[in-house]
Amino acid sequence: MGSAMSEWYHHRQRWAARAALAAAASAALLPLVAGGLTGLLLLVAGLAGLALTAAALWWVLSRRGPARLAAAALAVAAPVGLITLFATANLLWVVFVSLLLWCAAVWSGRYALRSTGLRPVRVKEYRTPPPQRPFLLLNPRSGGGKVGKFALREKAEALGARVVLLDPEQHQDVTALARAAVADGADLLGVAGGDGTQALVAAVAAEHGLPFLVIAAGTRNHFAMDLGLDRDDPSRCLDALTDGVELRVDLGFAEDRPFVNNASFGVYGAVVQSPGYREDKVGAALERLPELLTRQSGPRLTASADGTTIADPQAVLVSNNPYRMDDPFGFGRRERLNSGRLGVLAVRVDSAVEAAELLLSPRPEGLTVLTAQHVVVQADAPHLEVGLDGEALTMPAPVHCRIARRALRVRVPRDRPGVPEAPPRLDWRRLRKLAAAVSRTAAPSRSWRT
Q1: CA atoms of 345 and 264, how far apart (whole Å)
Q2: Considering the entire predicted model, what is its pTM?
Q3: What is the chain's pLDDT, residue by residue, as a tens digit (450 residues)?
């Protein structure tokens, strides 16, 4: 019975791979079959239009005044013109059908590869007794007032936590407050606030070997998202105080400054320094980007990641574990937080042609993606502007980034949304092998990672 089920399972896998290949081939050939030479010319025009749109977007970001307005108009006109060309040739339906076929190819291909027996990464959970003297810092302004909206203070105190409400009118040293709580006997530290505040208190918790509680009351809460916490109702994070488990996750450092998400150097690190960035992110970015992208201002960077040198990038992002880059729907998420590796993403674009390549090429030369345990960012200036978990800092150059593997004990609710399983990468060579397979030998052995 088991053998028959297994054979049926792999039979379904093979046909999914064949369907993916057939749908991909149909998506590519449909414009030629339906439109002949006209379809071929329109296909070339479509690729040229996409390249022109990418170049126009580059000019929007790197120019000012009339040139920026003209580029913005071109960025709109190029795709509109393409749609008009296909509609005039009565081939607009071909575009939509091709897109549908390509979506079917992606879905079938991932289904086939997901069915090969490989299991998702699972983070080991540790059962520990509930804390007796938890200490929580709550920022009432975080996330537009989520602390008050969800009555986090009242609910935390009802669960036995000692709560300190940060004063929005004056700066408070959250690291000092956390250290004082530890000295007073706290056996858990927690924060309801942005990722920058989370990182500072997390470092104190890691230093003293205490569990750390993340309350997703910030604006974006990337760290909470990658921990699988509920970002819609931050009060559910408090369930960890009574019915929780612990995860061992990594903590990143830029020199002695901790980060739970990333450290940004170059363009973003400079933009977040702008006085009006918090109130108008888009306006502040458009104001600073022309000089930064064309290297008229800001230091020139050099990054070294475990011996690999990245010369003269405009932006370098060093993350606490690598971000997913192969899935547009999961872009900006991390599959795991305990790999012991920093993610490195560096971008160098010096022309409209390189901007188009960055958008259209599967492996653009201007994009460097790798992992490392140690990253050094140097500059031709004595100081570097850094965005550390979204907080604006200035640090002496060079800046050394490292990762402390599984240094942080994060206490999370036993019942939580969890992290969505990452879809497998579309490997067309492997799909061809699966499609041609006649037995179970095409499926790799199962593997587990913790």
Answers
A1: 10
A2: 0.85
A3: 445 556 666 778 888 889 999 999 999 888 888 888 888 888 888 889 989 999 999 999 999 999 999 999 999 999 999 999 889 989 889 889 999 999 999 999 888 887 555 455 567 899 999 999 999 999 998 888 899 999 999 999 999 999 999 987 788 899 999 999 999 999 999 999 888 899 999 999 999 999 999 999 877 788 999 999 998 899 999 999 999 999 999 999 999 999 999 999 998 888 888 777 766 778 878 888 888 888 888 889 999 999 899 999 999 999 999 998 766 555 678 988 999 999 999 999 988 888 888 877 777 888 999 999 999 999 999 999 999 998 889 999 999 999 999 999 999 999 998 877 777 778 888 888 888 875 544 444 444 344
Q: What is the DSSP string of 337-378?
A: S-SS-EEEEEE---SHHHHHHHHH-SS-TTEEEEEESEEEEE
Q: Hey, CA dihedral for 247, 252, 258, 262, is it positive or negative?
A: negative
